Amino acid sequence: MSSTEGGAHAHHDDHHHPVDGFMRKYVFSVDHKWIGIQYGMTALIFLLFGFGLMMIMRWSMAYPGVEVPWVGQWLWPDTGGAMPSEAYNQFGAMHGTIMVFLGVVPLAVGAFGNYVVPLQVGAPDMAFPKLNMASFWCYLPGGVIMLASFFLPGGAAQSGWTSYPPLSVTIEATGQTFWLIGMVFLITSSLLGSVNTIVTIVQLRAPGLTWFRLPFFVWTQLVTAFLLLLAFPPLEAAGLMQLSDRVFDTNFFLPQGLMLNGDPLNNVGGGSALLYQHLFWFLAHPEVYVLILPAIGIVGEIIANNTRKPLYGYKTLIYASIFLGFMSFIVWAHHMFMTGMGTSISAFFQTTTMIISIPSVIILTALLLSLWGGSIRLTTPMLFALSFLPMFAIGGLTGLPLGLISSDIHLHDTYYVIGHFHYVVAPGTLMALFGGIYYWFPKMTGRKMSDVLGKLHFWGSFVTLNGVFMPMFIQGLGGVSRRLFDGGEAYAHAEPYLWLNKVMTHSAFLLGAFQVFFIINFFMSIFIGRKVDANPWKATTLEWTDAPSPPVGHGNFEHTPVVYRGPTEYSVPGHDKDFTPQSEPDPAPPEPEPEPEPAEEPAEAPAGAEASAGEEK
Amino acid sequence: MQIPYAVTERPDTGLNNAKLGIWLFLASEVMLFGALFSSYIFLRVSAPEWEMGVPEAAQNPAVWPLQFQKLKVALACLNTVFLIFSSVTMVMAWAELKRNNWAKHKLYLGLTIGLALAFMVIKAIEYGGKFSHGDFPSTSNFYAIYYTMTGLHGLHIVGGVAVLAYLFFFGKKMWNTEPERFAGRIEITGLYWHFVDLVWIFLFPVLYLL
Amino acid sequence: MAGHDINKEIRAYWLVFGALLVFTGLTVGVSYIPFVISMSLIVGLAVALCKGTMVALIFMHLKAEKRLIYWSLFFTVIFFFACILLPILTEMDQLDESPNGGFYHGTALPDPEDRPSFTHYTENRGGDH
How far is B167 from chain C (nearest CA, A)? Predict the structure, then answer.
């Protein structure tokens, strides 16, 4: 599986590599593959925890005031086991925070990004391995700090995942302060990671791997890294300012004249709650593209591989992703349409929001068109990738009434919003990420996950996910507000839609049950999954064609790969296989070959690749 | 296992990894301080300005004061000079390495650290003076944003001093074994240091003079 | 960075140092001139921009730097200005007609009569939420 003659032998130089101790190898590893696994396992655990929080919330929404089974009596003995509204607020705020910042992004960027990107660009590791380790070790303590806040006086953060002032500043819960401290750790982790990703992609591409031969997944990770790099700092500033408001009694976000629990707050004032919203959403909007772009990249990889066809519109996909990333910085106030902004500035944000839907549609269309004429293999990853397409379409389309002010007036802060963003993240991104796990599991372990369990997991999740989130649109259109611990029971206008709460709750519990198949499959397959060779999917990208499964401990590749062609050269006419690896050289011309030179320049690529490396800008 | 282009430049990009990395990091720092400048502007334009001769304004903490009356411009001016000086000594520290002059390099590096510490001393005097007058971040939004911006900038100086001190005390070994790599480290640290100076170049007039 | 160039660069560094000191003096001196605030702002920021550009181009070698760096910084600058300008624009263009063009965060100085009363606020919003 190794590449051409004359590949660099750099990796065989350090035979005297000292044996790493347990701490260095497994805890403070600098190997991107192990760090990727650390990120992945931690993120999956956080996802499971966030899911658990949601299950209890959904119980309260479907059966308000009723004892929560199994955990109710233990958690809330005072209310007879029913979920109190303060607890609902905590669970709600933490569910959102955990899923977004501790779950999906670390999985999509920290796990998949770290594990796959260096392999796909033909690099021995990330550009800064120690920084990578530091990045993980900012994420984990940040997550622990966040979770620890449940046990602090006053409880965890309970001002929504958005942590809007004045509530988030004036509320006494210590957990709210810890949320902010945790966010500082997470943002630091993210910044270090994004620098690493960008430098890796720019600098460590293998010889011959020009920009437009990069796998689409790498491009999406590059754009994502830029979003994280440039969008997170304002939230860091806002977090520090809110921390200062809470701890040092500053008034960045507190206007004068506030009342708290019926009494005047008598604060110095002069601040603005809207300032926080601007700084928060400046990050949080690009953040949602951080949530979706890696998933789009994974879907692209899986679709090309399982249609045995090149991706349709490869360059268009790339330009659309770049444009999407750029636009994402100037749409943020569509989350603030109800804050009293005037018509002109609102129209500006509405326009940019409408414009940003264009690249999303282009990407989705290109992925859909990639199926046309393909020889479709319905492998487990492919099922997940295929389901992403209509689910992301629903999520995206339901965003349009929210981006248009006149309809947003009615839909803002209703269940419609919750339905919209969950469709994009849960049936969308999360399905794509699961597909990615099934897809790259053989590369990580040398074994395949069970297809039977995988398809059970898929169909069960797909149906129940729609059962959980589709009714939300109906409730939202009916005017049911979000963040209500009783599911809207207290409001007369919500009465016709209350039965949907039960539908959603039961679907959510079923959804949880189907994840058991995944958990069993994952751990079981590590030990007794069917063993496979290095390229079981017959893919073209470097991680499959040039690295063993799992890749070489230090350096990934036995010989530095050299790239000769694009990333999805499937079913190329005239070739005997239906896939042509990126690192496979063109067949030699039929003329008699001259004597090949045995002496190559050390550590540099052979002449063929150098020419193609030199042609780019 | 060697990471390629850690020291030597990659031919098509013309950069080594660390240089690209530090510029990207600085880009994110631009956004961080940019958000704080944005907050400063936001808070200041939404507050009524202090008008001379309006007595209640002087007592009302929600009114934006005349900044140069509340802050010690002379001390800040001195600090500006210190930082500018430290910027040139920093780049000279790198240049002397290029000229293979270890002794002069160390001199300039030491000067840079000394000037940075002098900056922090003046800062401490400034803050101390204010605290003793009872002017804390909670006193008014002007003080809040002033302390936050100068405080964050000060933390960046401290971080820079830590790295510079490490290079100062432990640099000789790497200079003897891998001089290119060490010169690269000095250059990268210099880039960070100049950025910190750049932030102050904007902070000084905005907070003290306008 | 060839050997003989370094001496030229060193000269440039010290020249810039001198220029920076001069500009610092300039910026302090100009602040004493009783300009109207918008003028002070423009002059102050213009001087700071000159100083900053010198530091970036000469000390940070940006003049000789590669396109990749320029493009990263270019987009950073665009987003920087978006982050600064757009929030202010949202404050200047508000739905209700309070005094001070929308910059109203409950500061005490305007006369009590000029402050929109609570009922006035809800009237503009069309009653209950």
Answer: 19
Given CA atoms C94, C98, C101, C104 in this order, what sign does their dihedral have?
A: negative
Smallest CA–CA distance from C106 into chain A, residue:
A256
Closest by CA to C72, choosing from A202, B34, A128, is A202
For residue A260, the 8-state DSSP code is E
Is 70 exceeded by the pLDDT of residue A371?
Answer: yes
* CB-CB neighbours of A358 under 10 Å: 13
Segment C73-85 mean pLDDT: 91
Superfamily designation of domain B17-209: Cytochrome c oxidase, subunit III, four-helix bundle (1.20.120.80)
The torsion of the CA quartet A6, A12, A14, A19, rounded to 10 degrees, works out to 150
pLDDT at A374 over 90: yes
Number of other CB atoms surrounding residue A266 within 10 Å: 11
Report for A186-195, A582-591, C19-28: range of highest mean pLDDT? A186-195
Domain map (residue ranges) of chain A: 34-255+268-531
d(CA A514, CA A516): 5
**Does residue A439 contact residue A302 with C-beta atoms inside 8 Å?**
yes
Banded pLDDT at B171 (limits 50, 70, 90): very high
State residue B69's pLDDT score.
Answer: 82
> Do A15 and A86 form a contact (C-beta atoms < 8 A)?
no
Which residue ranges make up each domain of chain B? 17-209
Q: With an 8 Å Cβ cutoff, are A555 and B1 in contact?
A: yes
Cis amide leading into A141 (omega within 30): no
* pLDDT tens per residue, range A275-305: 999 999 999 999 999 999 999 999 999 999 9
Task: Say how far apart CA B196 and CA C123 lie, in whole Å.
Answer: 50
A179 in Cβ contact with A96 (< 8 Å): no
Residue A161 near residue A284 (C-beta atoms within 8 A): no
What CA–CA distance (Å, rounded) separates A293 from A372? 23
| The three-state (H, E, C) secondary structure of A448-485, written as one string | ECCHHHHHHHHHHHHHHHHHHHHHHHHHHHCCCECCCC
A406 touches chain C (CB under 8 A): no
Q: Is the pLDDT of residue A244 over 90?
A: yes
Q: Which residues of B touch A199 (CB under 8 A)?
A: 17, 20-21, 24
- Contact yes or no for C66 and B81 at CB 8 A: no
What is the number of residues in chain C?
Answer: 129
Chain A interface includes C79 (CB < 8 A)? yes
- Measured between alpha carbons, how far is residue A585 from residues A2, A103, A154, A209 in Å? 12, 40, 64, 13
Place of tokens 């990894």: B17
- Is A253 at the interface with chain C, CB within 8 A? no
Looking at residue C40, what is its pLDDT? 83
For the domain made up of A34-255+268-531, give the CATH fold.
Cytochrome C Oxidase; Chain A (1.20.210)
DSSP code of residue A208: T
- Asked whether the beta carbons of residue B194 and residue C107 sit closer than 8 angstroms, the reply is no
Could you tell me which of B87, B116, B115, B94 has the C-alpha nearest to residue B185? B94
Instruction: From residue A281, give the alpha-carbon distance in Å to each of A173, A255, A328, A410, A571.
Output: 24, 20, 11, 21, 45
CB contact under 8 A, B3 and A124: yes
Of residues A24 and A67, more confidently modeled: A67
